[in-house]
Automatic annotation (TrEMBL):
This is Uncharacterized protein. It comes from the Eukaryota.
Length: 122
C-alpha cells in the first residue's frame, strides 16, 4: 500500500465518527432497510472511491454484490446484500459514509414500537 493510500485510510478512520455500530447485527440491517432512501444516495456517491480503498478481494465482492443493479446500490435493498456489505466495505468506511444515519436510527428511533402503536390505534 502506498504512502498516500495509507494516509488516506488513516485520515478516513480518524475523521470517521466513533460510531459503535455492529454492521452484521439484525437491528442494524433493519435500520439500513428502513432508512435505505437516505442511505442509498450516500453509498452510491462513495462508490468511485471504493477501488482506491478496498483490497482486491473486497472490491471483487462489492462488484459481485452490485452487479445485478449495474454497479450501483439497488433501489430495493435485500437483507442478504446488507449482511455481506461489511465483508466488502470495512466498518470504519461504513461508519464514515452512512454511520450518522444508522447511529441516529439505532439510538433514537423505535420503529417496532411505532408500528405497534399505529396498530393499536387502527
Amino acid at each position: 500500500m502506498g504512502f498516500l493510500s495509507t494516509l488516506s485510510a488513516a485520515v478516513s478512520i480518524a475523521t470517521s465518527e466513533n460510531y459503535d455500530i455492529d454492521w452484521e447485527n439484525e437491528t442494524t440491517v433493519k435500520a439500513a432497510k428502513i432508512h435505505w432512501e437516505q442511505v442509498r444516495p450516500k453509498a452510491n456517491d462513495a462508490l468511485p472511491l471504493a477501488s482506491l480503498r478496498l483490497t482486491k478481494e473486497q472490491k471483487q465482492l462489492l462488484d459481485k454484490l452490485l452487479q445485478p443493479s449495474g454497479g450501483q446500490f439497488p433501489e430495493d435493498i435485500t437483507d442478504d446484500l446488507l449482511r455481506q456489505l461489511p465483508k466488502a466495505i470495512p466498518p470504519a468506511s461504513l461508519n464514515r459514509i452512512i454511520g450518522s444515519i444508522i447511529d441516529d436510527c439505532l439510538k433514537n428511533h423505535k420503529h417496532d414500537e411505532d408500528k405497534e402503536e399505529a396498530e393499536k390505534k387502527a
